[in-house]
């Protein structure tokens, strides 16, 4: 699978997640995909939220892996 195909699948996953984050006053931005690791940045209210690691692992990472099973981990870069 090409890097572009993987990026397209990750972007599609983020589009599914984004409305939930926006409704809480936040957002998410894809920074990069390197060696099966997705780097994102939680923005707005999400960046300082006390449960953002849980959101990242249980929501964002799970959704991205559903679209792109080749991804091994999602990391929030502050």
Question: How would you state the average pLDDT, rounded?
Answer: 89
- Spatial sequence of strands, sheet with the most strands: 1-2-3
**Uncertain runs with pLDDT below 50, 5 residues or more?**
none
The helix-strand sequence is HEEHE
| Number of E-state strands | 3
Structural overview:
This protein is of the alpha+beta class and 78 residues long. It has two helices and three strands. The protein has a three-stranded mixed sheet with strand order 1-2-3. The chain is globular, with a radius of gyration of 12 Å.
Q: Layout of helices and strands, plus pairs?
A:
Elements: H1 3-23, E1 26-34, E2 37-44, H2 52-67, E3 73-76
Parallel strand pairs: 2-3
Antiparallel strand pairs: 1-2
Helix pairs in contact: 1-2
Descriptive tags:
2 helices, alpha+beta, 27% strand, 78 residues
Short description:
It is built from two helices and three strands; from the N terminus they run αββαβ.
């Amino acid at each position: 699978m090409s890097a572009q195909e993987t990026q397209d699948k990750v972007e599609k996953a983020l589009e599914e997640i984004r409305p939930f984050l926006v409704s809480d006053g936040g957002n998410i931005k894809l920074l990069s995909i390197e060696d099966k690791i997705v780097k994102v940045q939680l923005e707005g209210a999400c960046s300082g939220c006390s449960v953002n690691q849980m959101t990242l692992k249980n929501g964002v990472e799970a959704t991205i892996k559903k679209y792109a099973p080749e991804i091994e981990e999602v990391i929030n870069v502050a």
